[in-house]
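Quick question about two entries, pasted in order.
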Amino acid sequence: MTDYDRLVDHYVAMWNKADAGNRKRLIAALWSEDCIHTNKRAEWHGHAAMLERVTGSYEKSIRDGGHRFEAMGNTEGYRNVVRLNWHMRPAGGGKIVAQGFELLVLADDGRIKADYQFIDPTPNP
């Protein structure tokens, strides 16, 4: 397992964490203080905004939706850039209900400075 794989494992785990304290600790460990997470709908800047973003996603998709995020196992990294694909499916297994691509740019300390998220069409609507 590479350092990039470990980063992605922790990144995906962060979105699935039920405990708010664990989410907050993972955000501090994974993200630089001046981080940005962005998709075509919105942008989030800094740890406090990331905590709101991850908590909102957890509550909607995991807690209330009964789903789980999973990395697709195709992590690639080069220097300070990491790419990964993910999908979301029911926690007990089943068809993929959402999927996407992340491009992570790392700060000098190895934490995420920027996360560019792209949502892909669902393969089996």
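Here is the second entry:
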Amino acid sequence: GKLYPADGNKPEHFSGTMADITERNAKDMQRYEVLKEQLQELQKQEIFRVTIRTQEEERKRIAESLHNGIGQLLYAVKLNLSQIDLKQDNMEYAQFQKAKRTTEELLNEAIRESRRISHELTPQFLEDFGLRESIRDVCRRFGQFMKLKCNFRGATAKLDKYLELSIYRIIQELILNVVKHAQATEANVEIDQGVNYITVVISDNGTGFQVSKSKSKGIGLQGIFNKVKLLNGKYKIESLNGTKVTVQIPVRAADN
């Protein structure tokens, strides 16, 4: 190899090469930081768009529930009441009693439907009884459509209020997704609350789907998983014999 002068100084051309490399590295780092910021901005915009779209879909679903549920029940009440006319000479008492019972049944059904929609919008049950009992309540309500098991493991410490609500919504929407799309007869919900993470696993014996095409199926998974991302969580989808969705979210205990 080449020998350097006894004074230890490197040749000028070598120093110039080092300066060029340093300058290139600095420029590369600047470009990298710019690209990183652009990518993060694009991700934020995408999450924002999906969040808005999910909120609009939720509003549409609630509007349909009001129209198809309560709206139609109240219209049926109106039609039934229009048949009751005590001034008619031929209005028999038995006929009146039958119309009255039908009206009461329709109104009771409208009240139940109103409570169901209210429960979905403002889960007071969560505020009063906590996350575990609220999830058990979800499993009981959806259990009328299929065999649904719900199991808990790990800590029982109360979590941050916003975090509990987010986890509750994610589990509720994932179970609803199974009911609406999976054609399953059985499903399992496993919740494991650790010190640093809460892990949710929801599996079913339904038809499954191609994970790579999940966005195009319009089954709402993308909106759910964007909520997971906003919570700095991770998710995994497996669909072979049925579907298995795993969600892991960092936890923070509630402030005392």
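Reply: The chain is about 60% helix and 15% strand. The helical segments are 12-82, 93-121, 124-142, 161-182, 221-230. Hope that helps.
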